[in-house]
Amino acid sequence: MLRDRTFDLSTEPVSALAAEDMALRAQVEQFLYREARLLDTRAFDAWLELWTPDGMYWLPHEPGQASPHDHISLFWEDATLREVRARRVSNARNWSQQPPTRTARLVGNVMLGGRDAQGRLVVHSTLVVHEWRLGQRTLAGLVTHKLDTREDWKIYLKRVDLVNSTDAFANLEVFV
């Protein structure tokens, strides 16, 4: 999965959505707010359930980066890597999480982009994460979700383009 060059990274929709589809936008917003709340309350098991089995979590290093295969990324995680990190940051014996990191996320500027070639919903939003662990820092960026909405809504791709992605970071332990 991590080396799968056929994974669909495109974030450009192939079909537009009707501007009057406000009900869908409300559902999308609630889904994104729920994801943020699960992460802020460290409900990692429930957050992991929001993903498709083949879903990928990506934080590119470079602005406009087209692929995680051709350049280093801050994160490029499949289901196994997401679960490993969730277990590590929630383990009581993990000294780097003593005290545990606390976060508060603000999700906004939610825009429906359309559907990709496989019918997944492309959604753009802005994210601000306030993080505290022995001090406070703020992360901000543009987020693109590709959501599989055929049955129960699931995340196929979450791409977070941090505004300062090329800066030197202290450890990014929690999910952005």
TrEMBL record:
Q: Which UniProt keywords apply?
A: Dioxygenase, Oxidoreductase
Which GO terms fall under molecular function for this chain's record?
Answer: dioxygenase activity
InterPro entries noted in UniProt: NTF2-like_dom_sf, Rng_hydr_dOase-bsu
Give me any GO biological process, just one: 3-phenylpropionate catabolic process
Family annotation (CDD domains): ring_hydroxylating_dioxygenases_beta (cd00667)
Q: Check the record and name the PANTHER family matching this protein.
A: BLR3401 PROTEIN (PTHR41534)
Please state which protein family the record places this protein in: Belongs to the bacterial ring-hydroxylating dioxygenase beta subunit family.
Name the record gives this protein = Aromatic-ring-hydroxylating dioxygenase subunit beta
The organism of origin for this protein: Burkholderia gladioli
